[in-house]
Queue: 4 jobs
Job 1
Amino acid sequence: QVQLVESGGGLVQAGDSLRLSCAASGRTLSIYTVGWFRQAPGKEREFVAAIATRSGSTSYADSVKGRFTISRDYAKNTVYLQMNTLKPEDTAVYFCASTARFGILAVSAQYDYWGQGTQVTVSS
């Protein structure tokens, strides 16, 4: 019912910036919240940031607060993750996910649809 496609990942040096995009299609009117998650090799998938698509309210994991910014272009059905001052520990596959739920949504089980992921690698 909803399809999500991430793009914008790549290889950068510590201190550099990247902007990830998450393009949604299908039944986009059913999306109330979009979240970004990441998973590094050998680690659990962790919450990064989320945005309420209509109000623009945002939330962030403590590890990225002050460095990452989540935003959306509602008319384009696209959510962005601007990542600044990247660190080697940010290296992971980044996924976007959507849900019809709203509120405090920081765990993967609260989301219904997922993209395929995009690789972000930060060298020191």
Job 2
Amino acid sequence: RVQLVESGGGSVQSGGSLRLSCAASGYPWSTYCMGWFRQAPGQEREGVAIIDSEGDTRYADSVKGRFTLSQDKAKNTVYLQMNNLQPEDTAMYFCAMDVWIPVEWWFLATKYTNWGQGTQVTVSS
């Protein structure tokens, strides 16, 4: 079965940086989508950044220019570099992965059946 192991969350001050990692194992697909969603208390889970097996990447408008998603295929790992973090970035961040889906669905949480346990990111002003 697919396993996603996340790391790298923490607490920073506004303007700081963090890097999240998500290591995948047990997946059967050669083409896939993988990336990050986040969920703040009382809010819906929202897509942050997704990358596919070909390296195509999409970002939510709220993080463009600040977050960078990359992947190391040899390690089956994706990395989310988060710079200039703001208090509104505070949330639980979840790694998600599934077989490749059309790009217009990438930020729909319901399209992903495999999730990590989540890692907390807290940004103080």
Job 3
Amino acid sequence: QVQVAESGGGLVTAGGSLRLSCAASQRGRSWNAMGWFRQAPGKEREFVASISWNGAQTIDADSVRGRFTISRDNAKNTVYLQMNSLKPEDTGLYYCAARRFADWAISSTISDYAYWGQGTQVTVSS
């Protein structure tokens, strides 16, 4: 069982930055892809970014491209989401998710992820 936990959320004004972290229970090298998703109140959960098992490939949503960067440090079993130039529309509960072992490829599909954190709140004021 893989355990993941997000941190780093908070309140920021438009144009500001936040860095989210996702700590996984795995020790050493990780062989699964990871992703970030977000959900605003009353809305469906949506894809934000994904990174392959070795960090060589990434994909992100059109709405965050050029502003958000996903990265990972497998030695620390940690995935990051650097968020710059934040907009009020970025407000939501941000979730970190992990694919199963040996599922290496990036994915924007919710059902491709087996393990989810409990979320960290990001609020961007006007």
Job 4
Amino acid sequence: QVQLVESGGGLVQPGGSLRLSCVASRSIFSINAMGWYRQAPGKERELVARIGRGGSTDYDDSVKGRFTISRDNAKNTVYLQMSSLKAEDTAVYYCNTFPTVRVYWGQGTQVTVSS
């Protein structure tokens, strides 16, 4: 039974940076592609970035060039490095497989970009 725990969120000024971490209770990254998702107030949850089983990455146009997804299989951890943050990046950020598995959704971590 897989549990995913996100951390690293917080309050940051526009233009600032944060690094989010997602730790899995057991190794799944060799089997599944992984993604970071976010849900802003009043908005649907959306895919932000994904990393494939072979390490290839894809990004939503809204974050391309600013966010970087990576993983460390030995630590069962996937990361999202965020830079040049904007107010519209404010959301709860979640990790999950890609495609998602419903029961894998965790608590997420809040990212607030505000001056």
